[in-house]
Amino acid sequence: MNPIRIEKSTQLKPKPEQQSLGFGKHFTDHMFLMDYSSDEGWHDARIVPYGPLELDPASMVFHYGQAVFEGLKAYRSVDEQILLFRPDKNAQRINHSSTRISIPPIDEAFFVEALQTLIRVEADWIPSMEGTSLYIRPFIIATEAALGVRSSDHYLFAIILSPGGAYYEEGLKPIRIFVDNHYVRAVQGGTGHAKTPGNYASSLKGQMEAKEQHNCSQVLWLDGIERTYIEEVGSMNVFFKINGEVITPELNGSILEGITRNSVIHLLREWGIHVSERKISIDEIMRASDDGLLEEVFGTGTAAVISPVGGLFWNNRDIVINEGITGACSQKLYDTLTGIQYGKVQDKWGWTVKC
Amino acid sequence: MNPIRIEKSTQLKPKPEQQSLGFGKHFTDHMFLMDYSSDEGWHDARIVPYGPLELDPASMVFHYGQAVFEGLKAYRSVDEQILLFRPDKNAQRINHSSTRISIPPIDEAFFVEALQTLIRVEADWIPSMEGTSLYIRPFIIATEAALGVRSSDHYLFAIILSPGGAYYEEGLKPIRIFVDNHYVRAVQGGTGHAKTPGNYASSLKGQMEAKEQHNCSQVLWLDGIERTYIEEVGSMNVFFKINGEVITPELNGSILEGITRNSVIHLLREWGIHVSERKISIDEIMRASDDGLLEEVFGTGTAAVISPVGGLFWNNRDIVINEGITGACSQKLYDTLTGIQYGKVQDKWGWTVKC
Question: One of this protein's Pfam families, by short name (chains A, B) (predicted)?
């Protein structure tokens, strides 16, 4: 792969206040770009001033949705290092997603090098306040200007960076979830296992109705075939602790293979907790709740790391989990994972990568 | 709605040769744009020189796929009028799609007016050779620059135009279709009934494999639940003529409500042919073929109008339909619909609209 050309911005933006960063609202001074054409393959890797992309209105991404993305964070560690968490997994996953969407793969080592190079250029943008981080959004879009349903001959791979505030400002906060019988996120044979924009577009209406009609902050998606088996929560993987055992939906082709999911399974097993990856139905969860065996429910994802679920609303039944407070297992997973990410817990797993 | 501001291009492009237009490759001198913000609603409708869209790399369309589109054609009629075919249906459908994808609706009369105004500006671009037309692509994309899975507060509605050659240069040509057991286009509860980019992204890999591995030019999609019932062919609706009756999959939430589909049903019924909109399984079709009752199969869509299917390949079975030649019913539908579109057949249905 060619070296990365760097063109520095001549006018740097003022950095936003760390107290009010929010999520995905501010973007740094530079971005990484690389082009693909059928003739040249991936070429012209460059870091340039952050600014608008000029795209022909016929660019295929607008019409046929050929696009994939990733999400991860850079953390300023307690000893002032810059740490990434398992970026090799994001590299693998973007290629997995690209395969499903007929986008050409990127060299995985180069993907990580591109992240690292951009983050080094933007190191001053990584916030230092407790719980803050620099969110990293790599994405690929089809840029050929042609109508007609087929794979594009041209793509743009971009990485943008956004400093983000603490997800939880006052400790973990359980959320209330709407179990959706009506909308379906994805089905086997579709694109649910790929991180592609269409999956998210399809989830918006259910999310909105869950909020407006049921005062729930997220949706729990059921499978599209029997409308019975648990898939994901919002855009997170989901775990259920029932009578001492932790259960999470198996990778069945319609759910995303989360990197936090994988790390959580790893840690739980190390701690001697039995983890099953298998089909689990909403009925089984309701029964466990009735029997007093549903101990904890939590989502896992890059943004929240661990998102405890305090209540489920399904078919007019409202169940409360662990009295609506964060369970011990959720808390320990959160503390351990964020501990590793911020360099407070020794990384004996080799999960962190320095920039 | 505000009047449409028109800013003419000072340098017009040379028009491409009508013999070699192809599809979706050339774009005209101007495009229609209109912005939406939560504060102002839809505003600033304008026709401006065709050129790149400048979009922040964080624009939501790139990440969460919030977008919808339409497709229709302007025809130069035999008496030198410019005709549109049922544009009110496209206006209705873009709003139907937008509702599913949480995009604000557009005034339907204004949608048609915008098409007409742009086409009048670009009238010289409508080709006149037999079978040619001006393809019209209205689309809406989410333009707010923010990461975070939610509906955008900003959108762009655009219309671009592309002169297109005859779909069939030497008369209708039956295609061979691969019946896909592996990939699924859409499922009930998902977005299959909306014209949104994600549906097309999800179809690319199956289409590519059908071509490369089975020498089939399109995929016949089965339902995602039982993998048994017919959904669509490629990006067309599909019809089966069995023992004198015409059957097409019912509008079940996972297939697109095609405007050509609707027109075909209307014409067939007028001609006294019984049309059923119902579930139809691939087994039923294979049985009909075995019994010598499968008379015709054809796809319907804006691009091809009628696309006769000459063969189906399913589970290593290769069946030939009507000896691989275009059936009488397919041909009559094609001749009538294109006849109406080009003003050769008197439009007693009120389907054509002048520009």
Answer: Aminotran_4
